Amino acid sequence: MQPASAGATQPTPVLEQLALQQIRVRNFAAAAQLYRQAVGQGDASAAAYSNLAALELQANRIEPAAALLEQALQLAPNNAEAWLNLGTAQHALGRSEQAAESCRRAAALKPGFAKAYANLGHALHTCSDAQGALEAYSKALALQPLYPEVLSAQGVVLRELGHITDSIAALERALEQRADYPEAMNNLGLSLQEAGQIEGAVHWFEQALAIKPAQSEILSNLGLALMEQGHMDQAQARFREALQHNPLYAEAHRHLSYCVNGREDPEPQQAAQACLNELKNQAKAYHLYFCIGKYQQDLQDPAAADWFCKANQSRSAQLEGTWTLPDPSDLIRTNTTLLAPSGAPTPPPQAQASTPRLIFIVGLPRSGSTLVETILSQNQELIDLGEVPYLNQAMAGCSTIDAIRSRYQAAIQTRADYRPDAAALSDKFLYNFAYCPVLAAAFPDCRIVHVHRNPMDNLWSTFTNHFAQGNEWTYRLDHSVAFYHLYRQVMAAHEQSIPGRIYHLNYDQLTRHPEQVIPSLIEHCGFDWDEAYLHPERGRRQIHTASAVQARSPINSRSVGRWQHYRDLLQPYADQLEALGYSTAIEPIA
Asked: How far does Cα 116 stand from its chain's mean position?
């Protein structure tokens, strides 16, 4: 019932007082109506605009709330809470740079305002300024140490920056403060998954779903973790469940495509096409383009190329200006600069034995490195580190090989799966290819396994796969050719500077003649022979999503020469590679 005194003839101050009374009794709809009358009379206070905006935000009417807050701040520009609320509205409207500036104004006006720094962190994170977001979260936590939302957000940013151990610690602290916090549980699951602790990740995803059982994102994350464990049927069920709750969840459609062969089951492609037709957020459409392209490739339909081109064009447009081709001379110079202080050549492998021995797998993404890693993991005494940026982190700010060695070893020793008595540890951070001489000097007894394949098969495979972060060069074929040339230049320079230290493994030969190639690989790594190495598909190691299905199949050469099915698109790029001196011909079977 409307208050009797709420007529349009009431003076503005009276309307504002009546509105406050309605707020005190939690009659928010009546309060909003009174405030609208007040501001409509043209002489309302800044508080009236600000309070009405807060009610509009509460009702999820974001656009009018932002306009009201701008009016409030014209009347009272030093109102920190109004600046914070404006930042919240701007962030919800996708105006993240403006939101960050509004939150900075709020923090400047009220230096002890922890929420202003928290929201600043959220805005900067959306602007892809992870370091700035981390600094803002640190300021919020300095003011309010027991702030679970900020601890959870901090954990996400730390994971993105590669600081996995710190990420896990922050998320565990968030859950100490709020035990029933499904978002933090989900984030902790993602960080544990990144750390290779898949059982822990599955546990936390399941805990989050016990609280919010219909959350499509968490269901999809659980499906990805189950894929890594090799539980493909269970993973497929979780993706399908996610899509039951949200048929327009583009990521889940793409994830499901990893588990389903389009030749055997046409329904998922039809569902993905229907999602594409209804999808309002076109920024997410590339997930569906990759998904439909994969199903078309299953059918060996040349139209797959069109879908992959759409996917990559979309991603390239979104990432415009975020990537430039490195200078190979700079990468080579980094190695020589770090090695220069020693003034001596790299010692032979037996000079300084590391325990456990390190095996570095390097090359390009989609080169066959996951198969090699899976083969090696048949040795039960090997610890599979996965794709970890430990070397890059160790090199940051270090000027000596000894310091790099020390920091790298400290990083691996913090892992829950580390054992000093393990036979070996495998590190598959592929971009370590840039620093092979550093690896050889820091760990003289390490093994460096360089996995390579036909360049066009490699570039086609990267073009047809989505990468969650990094690998920006894969979204344009001209960039892919340029990056391939850089990689080969760097590897050629390494071969001259550390001859004999890099073991070059040809994926095409591996898949065609595993009984010949694998024994040589195992001998190089210093392992005793076991027939299990010939059957990596029987192992139960955890495998990152993009390669999970292939690596759990018996070794086969089905992908060799696949690029030739799409010659209409790819031949110009093959010609460019040939002109640079790289053969794109399929090697004959001996």
From this structure: 27
